[in-house]
């Protein structure tokens, strides 16, 4: 207990120091300019009956927004300190599907920061435009350019990659998906500063992730990680639907028997950044079997408690 008390005191001192420092300067903004939206009609994406005249005001044509999450049991980079957050799923991304469930990817190669593009063409086919590999500074440095230590800390706790450094995974998600989301277009930012769209996307993805606490929703329904208990697909889907109002995509590996993904589909009122997410039914069929689904415990050395100490 004495050790915990000392650690807590250290956190308090650090927090007080941060407050003092914060009073000396303000961080640069990463907020888009949405004043033109004040005169635009208000509607949920994919539900508009007229043409959207200002794509900065509503995600278009990718108005079916997916907040996607992983349940991994290890990272493969434990020795480098890359660990999973205890009692929480992790962020996969924020995707802009078309209203029919189809999608595009890598829509702006001038904002391509993915070291290992996957797929490596814009349409995923051999005849597509090649997506060049990126070899510049990591996107974590973009976050630090804007002084967002708080955001970087959160992402390193909850946006965890398996088999690659976190920053490479974040770069992949921005380059493949955010560049296809109209509300993150460079034109939406007044006096645009390089990479503010990247930081804004990361902020937005974190906000969306926090809307869907998968671990807690499942646990409240008695569905918890276990290496012996199995669950039905209906149990998992219902546990989420009674909280969100819509059935998510439930993903499984291991020939449909190992739970590892959850995708939440939504229509958005306003922008992805600040608008209201209305959950809607998944347009993608589950990859899980109807029964015998295992929600595996994590390797003990692959996770850490992130809710108490930095």
Automatic annotation (TrEMBL):
Keywords in alphabetical order, please: Disulfide bond, Signal
Under the heading Gene3D superfamilies, the entry gives: Ribonuclease T2-like
**EC code(s) of this entry:** 4.6.1.19
Does this UniProt record's set of keywords contain Signal?
yes
Name the top EC class.
Answer: lyase
Q: Which residues form the active site?
A: 92, 173, 177
Any matching Pfam family: Ribonuclease_T2
Give the signal sequence positions. 1-22
- Put simply, this protein is called ribonuclease T2
């Amino acid at each position: 207990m004495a050790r915990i008390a000392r650690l807590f005191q250290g956190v308090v001192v650090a927090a007080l120091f941060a407050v003092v420092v914060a009073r000396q300067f303000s961080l640069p903004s990463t907020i888009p300019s949405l004043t033109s939206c004040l005169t635009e009609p208000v509607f949920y994406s994919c539900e508009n009956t007229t043409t959207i005249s200002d794509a900065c005001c509503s995600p278009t044509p990718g108005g079916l927004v997916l907040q996607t999450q992983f349940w991994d049991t290890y990272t493969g980079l434990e020795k480098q300190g890359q660990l999973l957050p205890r009692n929480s799923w992790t962020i996969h991304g924020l995707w802009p599907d078309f209203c029919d469930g189809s999608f595009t990817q890598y829509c702006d190669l001038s904002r391509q920061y993915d070291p290992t593009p996957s797929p490596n063409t814009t349409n995923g086919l051999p005849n597509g435009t090649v997506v060049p590999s990126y070899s510049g500074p990591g996107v974590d440095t973009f976050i630090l350019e804007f002084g967002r230590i708080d955001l970087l800390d959160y992402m390193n706790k909850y946006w965890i990659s398996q088999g690659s450094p976190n920053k490479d995974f974040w770069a992949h998600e921005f380059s493949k998906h955010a560049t296809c989301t109209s509300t993150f277009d460079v034109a939406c930012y007044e006096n645009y500063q390089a990479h503010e769209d990247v930081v804004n996307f990361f902020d937005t993805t974190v906000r969306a992730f926090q809307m869907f606490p998968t671990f807690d929703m499942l646990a409240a329904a008695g569905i918890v990680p276990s290496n012996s208990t199995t669950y039905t697909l209906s149990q998992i889907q219902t546990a989420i639907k009674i909280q969100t109002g819509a059935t998510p995509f439930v993903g499984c590996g291991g020939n449909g028997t190992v739970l590892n993904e959850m995708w939440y589909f939504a229509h958005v009122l306003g922008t992805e950044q600040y608008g209201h997410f209305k959950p809607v039914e998944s347009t993608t069929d589950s990859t899980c079997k109807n029964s015998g689904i295992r929600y595996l415990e994590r390797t003990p050395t692959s996770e850490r408690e992130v809710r108490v100490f930095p």
